[in-house]
Amino acid sequence: xxxxxxxxxxxxxxxxxxxxxxxxxxxxxxxxxxxxxxxxxxxxxxxxxxxxxxxxxxxxxxxxxxxxxxxxxxxxxxxxxxxxxxxxxxxxxxxxxxxxxxxxxxxxxxxxxxxxxxxxxxxxxxxxxxxxxxxxxxxxxxxxxxxxxxxxxxxxxxxxxxxxxxxxxxxxxxxxxxxxxxxxxxxxxxxxxxxxxxxxxxxxxxxxxxxxxxxxxxxxxxxxxxxxxxxxxxxxxxxxxxxxxxxxxxxxxxxxxxxxxxxxxxxxxxxxxxxxxxxxxxxxxx
Length: 286
Hints:
Membrane topology: Single-pass membrane protein
Oligomer: single chain
Main location: Golgi
Pfam family, one: IRX15_IRX15L_GXM
Protein name: Polysaccharide biosynthesis domain-containing protein
GO cellular component, one term: Golgi membrane
Largest sheet: 7 strands, mixed
Order of helices and strands: HHHHEHEHEHHEHEHEEH
Strand order of the largest sheet: 3-2-1-4-5-7-6
Number of helices: 11
């Protein structure tokens, strides 16, 4: 049978219809974004969420509008993002800690809409600028005390500091003796057990930069201290760089590496208690 399609005889009418359709869709998005800021919307959303786990949240709507109208894209590739997306899809709502605040932050928060997503950023000015644009994000500035040029010395000497090593004795909060321990983070970081940890900051591409040594070490300590069930998923970006790769192999461990795509590695790190029960505990992190 011949397919029949309705087409107006007047091309100008067709253009008008298409313009109206596009404009209507855009107005619907604007309506939802504005409605998301009203108390009535939040009350309705909370009630709907109780009955429908797929109910769209305000931050997801904001993310749709943002990325649909922005020419700035996330730093990671689609293949790299998909690794973390698949884990978030299986665990959300969950606790997601992200080292770095960037063009992908609204995306990460929207992929964990009813969970806790916390961003740790090295530049206070960037935190303030970002939160003015996207106040929905939960972000804090972090004062890193390391420098990238110190990475070799820190890696070779940390075992001589009892508060850094052995792993089952290591801790973070108020640990002033271990230079690799992030000891002055917001209490929220220490009070929660993080299901996912993304390390995509701080800067690590010039000698005076903080480097990611402390972030990688601290993520490993958090994972080993986990009391809840399951593993801690750690995602490390820029593993093509020497320091990231060396610290990953020292603290996150090749045996826990489950997937790698592009410049991203995905580790599943069990808590120290589980490793001890299985009788495979080693003297070091790995």
